[in-house]
């Protein structure tokens, strides 16, 4: 029988995760779920009590515990799900706003914002991985949604040396789902030639039941009615004959995205995505407080992260099964993409079966993707070295090589502002 610990159990996403665990509890052999969060999280008991009502409605198929003690939470856990937000939403909002002052993209997971988020996250994740190694089951797996998921996967697997770690994102499973709907098949019938880094990935082939349907998929995606005005990003994908991760907009249409972000924070603008999410979260917590509510509310879809629960729970289910299933996760390349280094942690296909995640060989990545992958991977590694060595010099170098980083003559001022804004989370410099 299995125990699953959720670090960041007070997240408004947790009811969706609970819905998935209820659905698949028999296949997992689930006996206990432990929600762990901070005492300062006012929403934690509200979220946990909703989860209790959800379980009661289904006849309590497994035990639910929640609390603040790390050892108690992680003790004997078979799976540890990480879904906490370092710095909370206020940290995300700061990450989005500070870079704009320096004409750089402000985004949660990439560029300057992702850099600051990573520096907040790494001290926390070190502590939790140590806790897993000390108290969890000997062969416990960590399933990670904490951002920036790709950089943190690189950190845990290649720097901390903990390999039973899968960085997850909801984007790949959504792409698979859309393909399944288009070709009227099951998700298991879809194989995407998918590779890159988290939030920076490409698809150059679509196979349905082993048959190459790439041309059909591309013609659907790039129909004229699907391409909006000023659609240089969509036109780029069409010209390259590739399906592009939406986050590549920040790299391929940087000026346009920077203008949109600046307009959002201007007087009368809609605000940053973090500010929008903060309002959505407040409304979700209000709904969760209703003692009559015993299911995930539809409004949760506005929060983002569609199919997050499906990706996490099905991965856990398949790690408990003898059947071999395909998942797209962040793990070490190990030769799967032939023209990228084997030690790169990439977002790629993997064959998952009982206690095993093995990358799937797909041949060579398209040459046009290689330069960006190498550059951003070096950014990730320099950021990790900056944290490990407490090196301001390496932190600056990381930002200078990132395609979305600031100009060199503004980097000192930017770094000072980032450090001051995050001084309660990291004191690296």
Written description of the protein model:
This protein has a domain of 166 residues: NAD(P)-binding Rossmann-like Domain (Rossmann fold, 3-Layer(aba) Sandwich). It is globular, with a radius of gyration of 21 Å. The chain is of the alpha/beta class and 429 residues long. The chain is built from 16 helices and 13 strands. Strand 1, helix 1 and strand 2 form a beta-alpha-beta unit. The strands form 3 sheets. A 6-stranded parallel beta sheet has the order 3-2-1-4-5-6, sandwiched between helices.
What keyword list fits this structure?
429 residues; globular; alpha/beta; 46% helix; four-stranded antiparallel sheet; six-stranded parallel sheet; Rossmann fold
Instruction: Determine the mean pLDDT.
Output: 94
- How far is the N terminus from the C terminus? 45 Å
**SSE series:** EHEHEHEHHEHEHEEEHHEHHHHEEEHHH
Measured by DSSP, the beta-strand proportion falls in: 15-25%
Biggest pleated-sheet summary: 6 strands, parallel
Described by its quaternary structure, the protein is: single chain
Classification by helices and strands? alpha/beta
Task: Note the overall shape.
Answer: globular
Q: What fold name goes in the CATH topology slot of the domain at 2-167?
A: Rossmann fold
Assign the CATH class of the domain at 2-167. Alpha Beta
Strand order of the largest sheet: 3-2-1-4-5-6
Radius of gyration: 21 Å
- The CATH homologous superfamily of the domain at 2-167 is termed NAD(P)-binding Rossmann-like Domain
């Amino acid at each position: 029988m299995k125990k699953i610990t959720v670090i960041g159990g007070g997240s408004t996403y947790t009811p969706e995760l609970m819905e998935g665990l209820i659905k698949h509890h028999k296949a997992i052999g689930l006996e206990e779920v432990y929600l762990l969060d901070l005492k300062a999280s006012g929403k934690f008991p509200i979220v946990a009590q909703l989860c209790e009502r959800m379980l009661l409605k289904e006849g309590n198929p497994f035990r639910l515990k929640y609390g603040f003690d790390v050892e108690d939470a992680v003790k004997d856990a078979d799976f540890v799900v990480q879904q906490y937000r370092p710095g909370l939403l206020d940290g995300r909002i700061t990450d989005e706003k500070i870079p704009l002052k320096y004409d750089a993209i402000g985004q949660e997971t990439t560029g300057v914002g992702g850099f600051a988020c990573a520096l907040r996250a790494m001290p926390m994740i070190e502590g939790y991985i140590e806790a897993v190694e000390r108290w969890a089951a000997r062969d416990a797996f960590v399933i990670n949604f904490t951002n920036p998921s790709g950089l943190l996967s690189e950190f845990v697997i290649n720097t901390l040396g903990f390999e039973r770690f899968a960085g997850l994102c909801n984007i790949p499973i959504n792409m698979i789902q859309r393909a399944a709907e288009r070709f009227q098949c099951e998700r298991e019938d879809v194989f995407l030639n998918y590779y890159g880094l988290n939030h920076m990935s490409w698809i150059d082939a679509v196979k349905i039941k082993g048959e190459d349907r790439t041309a059909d998929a591309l013609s659907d995606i790039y129909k004229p009615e699907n391409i909006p005005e000023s659609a240089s990003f969509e036109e780029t994908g069409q010209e390259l004959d590739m399906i592009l991760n939406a986050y590549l907009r920040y790299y391929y249409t940087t000026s346009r995205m920077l203008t949109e972000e600046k307009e959002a924070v201007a007087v009368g603008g809609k605000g940053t995505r973090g500010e929008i999410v903060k309002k959505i979260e407040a409304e979700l917590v209000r709904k969760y407080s209703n003692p009559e509510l015993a299911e995930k509310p539809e409004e949760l879809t506005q929060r983002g992260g569609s199919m997050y629960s499906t990706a996490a729970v099905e991965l856990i289910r398949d790690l408990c099964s003898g059947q071999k299933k395909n998942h797209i996760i962040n793990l070490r390349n190990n030769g799967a993409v032939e023209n990228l280094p084997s030690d790169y942690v990439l977002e790629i296909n993997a064959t998952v079966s009982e206690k095993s995640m093995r990358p799937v060989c797909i041949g060579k990545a398209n040459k046009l993707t290689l330069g960006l992958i190498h550059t951003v991977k070096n950014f990730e590694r320099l950021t990790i070295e900056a944290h490990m060595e407490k090196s301001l010099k390496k932190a600056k170098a990381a930002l200078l090589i990132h395609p979305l980083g600031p100009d060199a003559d503004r980097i000192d001022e930017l770094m000072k502002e980032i450090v001051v804004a995050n001084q309660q989370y990291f004191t690296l410099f």
